[in-house]
Amino acid sequence: MSDGVTRANSEIIAGEEGLDLLVGQASTNVEITAPISGETKTITLAKGDVATLSFDATAATPVLEGNDFVLTFDSNGDGSADSRIVFQNLVEEAQGDNAPVLVIGGVELSAGLLIGQAQALAEGETLETAAGAGAGPQGGGGSVYSDDFGDILDGLSGQSGLQGTLADLIAALAGGDGFSDTAAGIFTVEFLTLGTQVDSVNGGIEARDYDGGFEDWAPNQHVGEDGAAPMQVAFDFAPEDNETLDSIVIQESSENAVLYIGGFEDSNIFNGPFPVTITPDNFDQIYIKPDVNSDVDITLDVTANISDPDTGEVATIPVTVVAVIDAAADQAVFNNDLSDQSGLDEEALVEIPVNITFDDFLDGSETQEIVISGIPADWVLNIDGTFGPNSGVTYTENTSGNFVTYTLNVTSYVTTSNGTVDVNVTFDPKDWTSQRLDDGTEHKDGAAEIIITANTNETNQSGEDLSAENDASTISQKLTIDIAEDGPTVKNTAIALDETDGLQTNAEKRVENGNHTARVDAGQADVDAALTAAGLTAGKPVSSGYRKVNNRIDMESDGTTDANPADVDGQESIQFTAYNGQDSGLNTTAGDNIYLFSSTTNPAVVFGIVDPVLDKGGNLIGGTVALTATIDSDLVNENNTLHMYVEQYESLEHPNENSHDETIRLNLNYFVTDDEGDKSNIARVQVQFRDDGPTIESDNAAVVIDDDDVLGADGNPDGVGDDAPENVTGTLSHNYGADEEGATTLLLDTGAPEGFTYSLNDDGTVLTVKQGGVNVMSITLDDTSSGNYTVTQLNPIKHPEGSDENNVEFVFNYRVTDGDKDTVDGTLAVSVDDDTPVVIDDISNTTDESKLPGDWSIAKGNIAADFGADGGE
Record's superkingdom (predicted)? Predict the structure, then answer.
């Protein structure tokens, strides 16, 4: 590419001009007389007008003043002009076809010829040299001059008198031998881009006519608009009188420009050979296009072939013209659409994909740069990691607030990479996330909104520029990069204790087995210290347990082993959520509510308190400690083990009366904080307290009683098969476990044998046995909880008939209920021995029946017998 150069058109006046030649057809005839002293006449002539000067031409002195042709007069002969005739704008009107005509001394002269000769004189020629040596039919008399209107004005502006009178100027034109009618005229070549071909687009150049052309015929390619605005080669011929332009010959351009004949479609491209002759039917259909991506101005050699139909004279007018080619920056092309990046890991490298093609890079006429803006200031660009070492890419950075704009000069890299930059621009975001800066400070900017801009700028332009609006091109893409703060996460877990005697759960066993001594000791020390600080004391634990669970805590990259120097040290922590007297949902076996309180000195310790005592400030200063819990973790980067230690000091109420192994649960919420102050989600530590339930530890010894012992029943001790009384007093077997508070052992009125009924008092401590409506026996408990009993026979019991002391068997049922209403039933067997009659003395008497009369005899006397407790019949 190159840029604008010099003139866009040229004119040639060729041949001698006859004084009797009428140039053009007049549309208005004007007669002009000499002004009087002190008068200025202003005359405006349009194309085709004829003005007759009715005064002596020797009295007028011609002067060129800008665009005006002026005749001055010295009417009093003092050497100073005192009156004027101003032909306003005649210099402009004299250009091209049908110029105004001045009739001077009977000779009709084209204003164009008159102005042309005046220009030659203004450039320093005398009237004689302007006429040409040996002027006449064979004279040279022609002059070549630039027809760019601006240059004419520049050449004529400010000139004084032309060193002679109007008559002298006419004489110079006539030459020594007068005028002859040769083929002559003015041939103009211009390069035009019409405004109708320049698209009006957003960001584009002004849609107007331009004296020249544009690189690639694309004046708006800097905004990606490739609509063609063809550059026309415009020819104009102003005949001296009635000459005709017969053909035009164009030589091949040395700048590899492409010539179009007959239009500007691809089918109109002329591929040679040169020179080429253009016929009149294509005079207005000649276009020329610069080489691809070039703004080198085009030099064109053109020859006009003209002829005079009156005389048959012919002439050629050669012209060399230069077309100004405007440099238009080529818009870069993004080869890929970008997708937003979300959920990126904290501290992972960020790669911004850049795939851009810069089309115009070979001739060095454009510079290329990539601007990446919206980069968080914490991020660090890895230029070598992006382009490789010694890539030639340089950059500048501009910081504004929390963001940096990087401007990468990739001109040399584009050249070596054949026009395309295809890289991942790499940044180290350090500890920056969409929520926090590298030092852990929160920010409100959110995700990084990054803009990637490809800029091309024209440089080393070859000359004149038609428009500066298209010298730079820019195109952008947007990309959102969201790096989620990799805040720590915690998970739910649990630990179990059992109120049953002995080590029931794994957590309880770990406290005693010696494999976890360090962690158990640490947990106990944390609990003791927290209790002491709160002024509390706890009893002997009913149960205690320790458990560790792996991978419950993930600190991601921000744990205690994070080496980022920007972080504030010591922010890592593990703790329960704050508890300030919330009801735990648990009760002691006695029915007392347990309330939760956080330790004020160690938030990783929680107390469960019965009847809490608070000071005026609401701080816990007293109460019964029912339980404590503490948690701990190393909180290193990535995954961590959670350590839990729990102590239970009071038995707890388990509401399900039908289960001895019921589990009640206490959910304690906990969270962690990382080294940036990020808090995790909240998870729970579920402390499970399993019920122990009452038990019957052994069979009760059987109770034996004997009717012989019934008071007042006059029993017969030592009857046949008498049993000695046993275990008439004792303790019913029972064990309340941990839930002693409120536990009971009571009799049941079930299991009476046939012929007997049981009657139980209201509090279950006295069971009466009835036979036939008679109270025959009772079992009495000393109280409701000890299980101490006494069995008493109240009246003789009617035993089954028989000859010996057969026994009646009874089973007394009882129920053991612990403090949280779990129950177990037991039995007490009672055997009641019968009382048999006895003969008190043995007496021997003999009766001899043979001495008795008849078949029978009567003997009288008493038999001594004791029927015992059962009486006799």
Answer: Bacteria
